[in-house]
Write a structure and sequence with these properties.
By secondary structure, this protein is mainly alpha-helical. The chain contains 18 helices and 8 strands. The protein has a single domain, classed as Serine Threonine Protein Phosphatase 5, Tetratricopeptide repeat (Alpha Horseshoe), CATH 1.25.40.390. The chain has a two-stranded antiparallel ribbon. It has a two-stranded antiparallel sheet with strand order 2-3. Strands 4-8 form a two-stranded antiparallel sheet. A hairpin with a 2-residue loop joins strand 6 and strand 7. The chain is globular and about 60 Å long.
Length: about 450
């Protein structure tokens, strides 16, 4: 057994001393006074989002790039992240602890908004907007926690004593709460975006989009297909709300493919760009592994647009700026994933065509010809490949796909035979959390 003890940070709602300061946004208001009027409540909502997308948050870039190292997508030039690349997390690995902290702080803020706004006398439309957004963020954070760590505490209150001693809850129960939160969020959120054209605050269809993913992961293929269809066919009046766009503009602020994006306006660029965009002729930080590179067809526009070359090495080039140009947002949910979710759900249901029409929408946008599926097995193989090349270096899709489809041992075992153990599929529960909460136990393979 490898020594993979993790030194981390402690959740502020536990009432214990933090080892690392997250630098909570000044717009974050969680006290009862935050809900005295709509202005301060809106500030609390802004702070909840900012907790996730600020530069020091592990969500801002780590969720996309470090999971790429854990899987078979990326390598890192240097030793900074070799513990991820080798699936050998070691002591003092701060970003795993930061992920735990960020997630539960976001959940705490969401709970505070739900509790505070529920007791307010705000107009019904405002209350629904605030509560719906908070429920979405609570579900979103719990989703990543359960997929990264397995069984985790399920936090639905701001009661510090209750939360401080919360045990790990079965993943199935966490998923049940995620689904309940998203279903309610979708039922009360409007079609319009409170953030206007930027789509940086969630709406009804953002909740449906995340639900489609959750249902797919839970193998509820009928529900996954239905939710993805809701998003794909969404209309604002008589105009499609979401449309597939050319790969070269998919991640721009004005992209109509975006369903929900992280607001980068304070920086002027998505934080992920600082990690992926190399200086002129410099060796990139993160490079594309040969297996991923060879998965692209030669004429695939995604290969020529989303993969850059510097110093003879290929790197992820979905985000191309790291200076204050205000051109891009970090897109968290987008339409292409919904087509691939629906394709997979239809394939598993053995529906006519096995989802080929949806796969071919994604391929057509990439400049590729359509496929014809003759069997379920053929379709699932093709869909997995399309997910790999379409969603690489985005929000842990490949890492979570390998795990949910039972391929992680075979893929990572072959790629990293000197390091891989099946217990590496889950991240370690931060040891400081375990030390401060006697009801928490480590994940297998960590001590």
């Amino acid at each position: 057994m490898k020594n993979k003890i993790l030194l981390a940070i402690l959740l502020p709602l536990c009432g214990c001393q933090k080892l690392v300061d997250l630098d909570v946004p000044k717009t974050s208001l969680v006290a009862s006074t935050a809900f005295s009027d709509q202005t301060t409540t809106t500030s609390a909502i802004s702070g909840m989002y900012a907790t996730l997308y600020k530069v020091s948050s592990s969500y801002a870039w780590g969720m996309s790039l470090l999971t790429g190292l854990l899987a078979d997508e990326l390598s890192f030039n240097g030793t900074t992240w070799e513990q991820y690349q080798n699936n050998s997390l070691i002591a003092n690995e701060s970003l795993v602890g930061r992920t735990w902290y960020t997630s539960y702080y976001g959940i705490y803020q969401a709970n505070a908004i739900v509790e505070g706004v529920s007791k307010s006398n705000f107009p019904e439309a405002f209350k629904n907007q605030a509560i719906g957004e908070a429920l979405f963020i609570r579900a979103f954070c719990h989703f990543y926690m359960v997929n990264l760590f397995g069984d985790v505490p399920l936090i639905t209150t701001t009661n510090t004593e209750t939360n401080r001693l919360s045990p790990r809850v079965a993943a199935a129960d966490v998923y049940a709460q995620i689904i309940a939160d998203l279903e309610r969020a979708q039922s009360i959120l409007p079609v319009t975006y409170a953030s206007g054209t930027n789509r940086t605050r969630v709406n009804k269809y953002a909740a449906a989009a995340l639900l489609a993913r959750v249902y797919l992961y839970q193998k509820n293929y009928v529900a996954a297909e239905a939710k993805a269809t809701e998003v794909i066919t969404a209309m604002n009046g008589n105009v499609p709300l979401y449309t597939m766009v050319d790969p070269s503009v998919a991640f721009l602020i004005a992209s109509n493919e975006a369903i929900w994006s992280f607001d980068s306006s304070d920086n002027g660029f998505p934080p992920i760009g600082t990690q992926t965009v190399p200086n002129a002729n410099a060796v990139p930080n993160f490079t594309i592994l040969p297996g991923l590179f060879s998965a692209f067809e030669l004429t695939d526009k995604r290969k020529t647009t989303w993969i850059g070359v510097s110093a003879g090495q290929n790197y992820p080039n979905k985000y191309r700026t790291k200076t204050k140009l205000n051109l891009e947002f970090d897109v968290v949910l987008r339409l292409a994933e919904q087509y691939l979710i629906r394709a997979e759900a239809r394939a598993y249901q053995n529906k006519p065509g096995f989802g080929e029409a949806d796969v071919n929408v994604v391929r057509g946008r990439a400049g590729l010809g359509g496929l014809i599926f003759g069997s379920q097995a053929q379709s699932l193989t093709a869909i997995a490949k399309e997910r790999r090349v379409e969603l690489f270096a985005e929000w842990g899709h490949r890492w979570m796909d390998l795990k949910r489809t039972g391929q992680v041992d075979a893929v990572n075992g072959a790629l990293k035979p000197a390091f891989w153990q099946s217990t590496d599929a889950l991240l370690p529960i931060p040891t400081v959390e375990i030390a401060n909460n006697p009801n928490l136990v480590p994940n297998p393979g960590y001590f």
